[in-house]
């Protein structure tokens, strides 16, 4: 088994263009194996041609993000739910 | 290499967060890389530590091509999971592999800027290939030399060549390296592990083996070319 | 387009008339992966072709090896902007693989071990334009580059040359593959710089 070079922390930037809240702390549930994990802990392949986040449990594709010059494409087809913590403390200077 | 960017209306950031830097060539070609912020914000000044990657088109440009006064596109701060919040009361174990020390340095510096006596104690286990690879050496040594009340201890791991006279022979990170600075799993520290994928996976496995709860271990993996 | 970063050029691009627009030359062979490298033994390996009426043709590794193969020297162009000239491959032409396959399909969806897919017009797989390649530079194709066998369609961006190929689904309608579902071009001609949908 090969391990990818990245994890879900790398998705923070591209996903910040889509979501008002940080998604790396969000919990996703895998449609394939049912396990739940923070986006930050996904095994991430990329960054080119796009970011592919796979389940650390079963390696299924959970989410994909592609940034083209004029659009952000998001696929969440591999997850049954995404739970985003809504009361994150704001950044402290 | 330290890069200080002047970012108007910077909203501030949490220790551990990163930014994405995007460079655009005249023909529209773009290259984007993530860099950890290495220090607490000073007003609108954001400090990045960039390690030059052989044949790295972005790190080489930032090191050699960028002049004072030039503008780059910045996205951030981003990332809300691999962060330390000043309100966290528990002790902290930082485990760095190579340039993975950068976001951990941001945490250490943030802790140092607030009242150290009121802050939880920090331990840093820092793995490098050889002595010359230690980033922030003087600052780390100074931090670790502060009176014990200041609560920072440093344990260096050399994987290829240890300094003359080091009691620890060169070699990969082991269980006792993670115990050496003084935490046991019973102290329930939050562990922040950052480095290349292979390093992070083996360090996290060692921590779990020592009894640290998986939910107390936060990891960030840098690609092979580093941040 | 974003504002130009003063002084930034990126890697030198387009200095060779064999380089499509926006490409730079590399001597390396970069590895791009969307997932773990599947380990497939020759004993377990199989190639299938399924037509629009459900007919299925299969080849074992031994059967593929019995087919006539070509050695070809081609230029390859990755959508991430690197190009590599004069790469040498050995493989079985898709003309040979598809010779006895009856179909009215206009499109192909190529499937890989590990779940990757990519789509292209069937005519781009024919007439000496595509191979099931199993050797690179005189050696067995290494797993990280798609071994035991990958598709080789060098006239299109290299994401169409699916690594770890396992099957070709022939379709009457185009059906987007792994990257084509997410913004990449359905055809991907490097000379027309068809990187993204709308290019």
Automatic annotation (TrEMBL), chain A:
<dbReference type="Pfam" id="PF20120">
    <property type="entry name" value="DUF6510"/>
</dbReference>
<dbReference type="InterPro" id="IPR045423">
    <property type="entry name" value="DUF6510"/>
</dbReference>
<protein>
    <submittedName>
        <fullName>Uncharacterized protein</fullName>
    </submittedName>
</protein>
UniProtKB/TrEMBL annotation, chain B:
<dbReference type="Pfam" id="PF00970">
    <property type="entry name" value="FAD_binding_6"/>
</dbReference>
<dbReference type="GO" id="GO:0016491">
    <property type="term" value="F:oxidoreductase activity"/>
</dbReference>
<dbReference type="Pfam" id="PF00175">
    <property type="entry name" value="NAD_binding_1"/>
</dbReference>
<dbReference type="InterPro" id="IPR050415">
    <property type="entry name" value="MRET"/>
</dbReference>
<dbReference type="InterPro" id="IPR017927">
    <property type="entry name" value="FAD-bd_FR_type"/>
</dbReference>
<dbReference type="InterPro" id="IPR039261">
    <property type="entry name" value="FNR_nucleotide-bd"/>
</dbReference>
<keyword id="KW-0408">Iron</keyword>
<keyword id="KW-0001">2Fe-2S</keyword>
<keyword id="KW-0479">Metal-binding</keyword>
<dbReference type="InterPro" id="IPR017938">
    <property type="entry name" value="Riboflavin_synthase-like_b-brl"/>
</dbReference>
<keyword id="KW-0411">Iron-sulfur</keyword>
<dbReference type="InterPro" id="IPR001709">
    <property type="entry name" value="Flavoprot_Pyr_Nucl_cyt_Rdtase"/>
</dbReference>
<feature type="domain" description="FAD-binding FR-type">
    <location>
        <begin position="1"/>
        <end position="84"/>
    </location>
</feature>
<dbReference type="GO" id="GO:0051537">
    <property type="term" value="F:2 iron, 2 sulfur cluster binding"/>
</dbReference>
<dbReference type="InterPro" id="IPR001433">
    <property type="entry name" value="OxRdtase_FAD/NAD-bd"/>
</dbReference>
Automatic annotation (TrEMBL), chain C:
<feature type="domain" description="Oxidoreductase molybdopterin-binding">
    <location>
        <begin position="35"/>
        <end position="179"/>
    </location>
</feature>
<dbReference type="InterPro" id="IPR000572">
    <property type="entry name" value="OxRdtase_Mopterin-bd_dom"/>
</dbReference>
<dbReference type="InterPro" id="IPR036374">
    <property type="entry name" value="OxRdtase_Mopterin-bd_sf"/>
</dbReference>
<protein>
    <submittedName>
        <fullName>Molybdopterin-binding protein</fullName>
    </submittedName>
</protein>
<dbReference type="Pfam" id="PF00174">
    <property type="entry name" value="Oxidored_molyb"/>
</dbReference>
<feature type="region of interest" description="Disordered">
    <location>
        <begin position="1"/>
        <end position="22"/>
    </location>
</feature>
């Amino acid at each position: 088994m090969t391990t990818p070079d990245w994890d879900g922390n790398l998705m923070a930037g591209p996903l910040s263009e889509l979501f008002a809240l940080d998604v790396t702390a969000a919990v996703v549930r895998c449609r394939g194996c049912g396990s739940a994990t923070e986006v930050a802990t996904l095994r991430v392949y990329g960054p080119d041609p796009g970011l592919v986040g796979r389940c650390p449990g079963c390696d299924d594709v959970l989410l994909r993000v592609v940034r083209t010059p004029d659009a952000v494409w998001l696929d969440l087809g591999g997850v049954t739910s995404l739970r985003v913590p809504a009361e994150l403390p704001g950044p402290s200077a | 290499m330290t890069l200080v960017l002047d970012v108007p209306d910077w909203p501030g950031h949490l220790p551990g967060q990163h930014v994405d830097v995007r460079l655009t060539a005249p023909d529209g070609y773009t290259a984007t890389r993530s860099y950890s912020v290495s220090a607490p914000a000073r007003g609108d000044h954001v400090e990045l530590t960039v390690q030059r990657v052989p044949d790295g088109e972005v790190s080489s440009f930032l090191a050699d091509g960028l002049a004072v006064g030039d503008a780059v596109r910045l996205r951030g701060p981003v990332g809300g999971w691999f962060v330390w919040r000043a309100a966290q009361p528990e002790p902290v174990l930082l485990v760095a592999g190579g340039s993975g020390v950068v976001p951990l340095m941001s945490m250490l510096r943030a802790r140092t800027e607030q009242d150290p006596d009121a802050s939880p104690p920090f331990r840093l286990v820092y793995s490098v290939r050889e002595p010359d690879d230690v980033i922030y050496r003087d600052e780390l040594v100074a931090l670790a030399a502060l009176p014990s009340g200041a609560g920072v201890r440093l344990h260096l791991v050399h994987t290829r060549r240890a300094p003359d006279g080091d009691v620890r022979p060169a070699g990969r990170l082991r269980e006792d390296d993670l115990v050496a600075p003084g935490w046991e799993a019973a102290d329930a520290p939050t562990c922040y592990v950052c480095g290349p994928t292979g390093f992070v996976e083996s360090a996290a496995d060692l921590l779990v083996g020592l009894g640290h709860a998986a939910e107390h271990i936060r990891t960030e993996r840098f690609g092979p070319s580093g941040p | 387009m974003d504002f130009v970063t003063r002084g930034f050029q990126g890697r030198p691009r387009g200095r060779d008339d064999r380089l499509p627009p926006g490409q730079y030359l590399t001597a390396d062979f970069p590895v791009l992966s969307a997932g773990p490298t599947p380990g497939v033994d020759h004993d377990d390996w199989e190639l299938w072709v399924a037509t629009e009426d459900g007919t299925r043709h299969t080849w074992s590794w031994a059967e593929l090896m019995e087919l006539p193969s070509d050695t070809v020297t081609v230029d390859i162009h990755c959508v991430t902007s690197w190009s590599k000239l004069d790469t040498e491959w050995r493989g079985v032409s898709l003309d040979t693989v598809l010779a006895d396959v009856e179909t009215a399909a206009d499109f192909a969806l190529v499937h890989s071990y590990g779940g990757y897919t990519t789509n292209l017009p069937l005519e781009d797989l024919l007439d000496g334009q595509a191979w099931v390649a199993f050797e690179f530079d005189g050696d067995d194709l290494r797993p990280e580059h798609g071994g035991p066998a990958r598709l080789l369609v060098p006239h299109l961006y290299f994401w169409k040359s699916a690594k770890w190929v396992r099957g070709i689904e022939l379709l009457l309608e185009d059906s987007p593959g792994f990257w084509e579902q997410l913004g990449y071009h359905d055809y991907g001609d490097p000379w027309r710089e068809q990187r993204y949908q709308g290019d």
